[in-house]
Amino acid sequence: MAENVYVADIAAHEWQEVTLRGWLHNRRSSGKLHFLQVRDGTGTIQCVVFKGNVTPEAFTEADHLPQETSIVVTGLVKKEPRSPIGFEIDVRGL
């Protein structure tokens, strides 16, 4: 079972599956990928939704979420040097 985490504590969970609860700050898409910027009270993190890692329904839903939607994301924490916080979440469930 994925542990509930805050963005501020994400570094302690590298290569672990976690659950993050927050709000959709921004969203952009690129074919087989959706990039969701999710914020909670402690910070913002990029959550990457790859078409092959989620159900077709979840992938479609990720492309149509309005800004400030309350969201629960489950996924694998990965190091990402281009990220302002150094990590992102590879989404497995939405």
What does this structure look like?
22% of the residues are buried. A 5-stranded mixed β-barrel has the order 2-3-4-6-5. The protein is 7% helix and 53% strand. It is mainly beta and 94 residues long. The chain has a single domain, classed as Beta Barrel (OB fold (Dihydrolipoamide Acetyltransferase, E2P)), CATH 2.40.50.
Q: What is the compact description of this entry?
A:
The chain has 94 residues and is mostly beta strands.
Helix count, DSSP H or I runs of 4 or more residues:
1
- The proportion of residues in beta strands is over 45%
What structural category characterises the helix and strand content?
mainly beta
Overall helicity: under 10%
Number of strands: 6
Helix and strand succession? EEEEHEE
Note the topology.
Layout: E1 3-5, E2 17-30, E3 33-40, E4 43-50, H1 56-62, E5 70-79, E6 87-93
Parallel strand pairs: 1-2, 4-6
Antiparallel strand pairs: 2-3, 2-5, 3-4, 5-6
What labels would you give this structure?
5-stranded mixed β-barrel, 94 residues, 6 strands, OB fold (Dihydrolipoamide Acetyltransferase, E2P), mainly beta
